[in-house]
Amino acid sequence: MNAPANPAAFLDTLKRPEAGATPVTVAFGDGIGPEIMQACLKILVAAGARLAFEPIDIGERVYLSGNTAGIAPEAWESLRRTKVFYKAPITTPQGGGFKSLNVTVRKTLGLYANVRPCTAYAPFIATKHPDMDVVIVRENEEDLYAGIEHRQTDEVVQCLKIISRPGCEKIVRYAFEYARAHGRKKVTCFTKDNIMKLTDGLFHKVFDEIGAEYPELEKEHWIVDIGAAKLADNPSQFDLIVMPNLYGDILSDVAAEIAGSVGLAGSANIGEHCAMFEAIHGSAPRRAGQDLANPSGLLLGGVQMLVHVGQADVAERVHNAWLKTIEDGVHTYDIFTEGVSTKKVGTQAFAAEVIARLGQRPTTLRAADYAARPTMRLPTWTRKPPAKKELVGIDVFVHAPGIAADALAATMKQGVFGPYELAMITNRGVKVWPGGLPETFCTDHWRCRYMAEPGKPLHHAMIAELLGRLAKAGVDFIKTEHLCTFDGEPGYSLGQGQ
Hints:
With 498 residues, the protein is of the alpha/beta class. It contains 14 helices and 20 strands.
């Protein structure tokens, strides 16, 4: 059975919501999205979910109509009114100016916390890690996903990694509050602060600061590369892992796959005002309309949604019926295994099997128990007094192809007129002047660092004068970065080799 051509008409076939039902904005999505959403809504309604669904149109059709955001103003109105979004996967057209709708929704609505439980269902679903039960909490709004990119020269493009103290504090506190509310014993932080000492260093620093407020929880930090290796090899040593955006995106997919299948993982996106619930997989257009797709990831996202809106009783009923279905060997094609599975079913038949088991509990797999969990306290953030900020230097980035570092330094010195000097030139972060090595490969993109004399901070008028002098000297400067101290601490990194 294919998904309905008209989602609104399909919603009219469901049991009408009772008075006082929680309003939920629903997007049927692209590819396999409509058919798995149909299956999930049937299950939720059959389980007694007290929800009133408002359909919106987002994704590929909206993109191709000329709206590069992939979402229309009336859809935003629904989301801001209901504050709860149940979303099937959507397709982002490749190329052009199309931005990821997922990223747009998360950032626009302030959905800073992405929560992805990754659990093994052995022996019913194949995995090398039968004891795996890890929750990935991912920062959802910043990092490289700020999406600020520029082509600066013929040879170099850049992507800005944005890490803020508010962003770090909100996600780290959320992770500890989640661990406390859900009975987790240990919180682990993954960063790469041995290299990115300011950005990832801030994330790690905030983790240590906030972690001290939760003495009952075990805390640890891993450099992300070895942490990822440990997660893939022995996930049972982790309980809850909190990470910046990019690492969390990658490793939550890894964790879901090694638990059994990415197709089984649901995802919650939580903010102070709104929340979005979805599967972590994509729209799989090659499987669309074939009644083959596994709705489990979206269904478990729906379970998270039910807990969020205060319907833990229904969440428990749905989750346990799903676990019993998996335990009984009733599987879609993607997890079907000869000798383990007992029945291969399509999307809608799988939904019917789950509905038939509502009220039942698994006997081998651990049953879900949501009613006994305490209400989670959602963190809020309070702005702190600003530090004392002093301008002590400036990095001037220059497009200069086919030039030696010594020759570039001679040109850049022509801009100096006050109590500062050209201190360093780097290329791709490596110091090439003074004292560079001839073996270092240089592109056409240079960073020229000017530093003030001790005790003589710069001011903006001096920066403007410097750039004016460089312009007269024919320098093609393409960007600048101010170098400041905050309460006396440098707010900038050294060059490699400096």
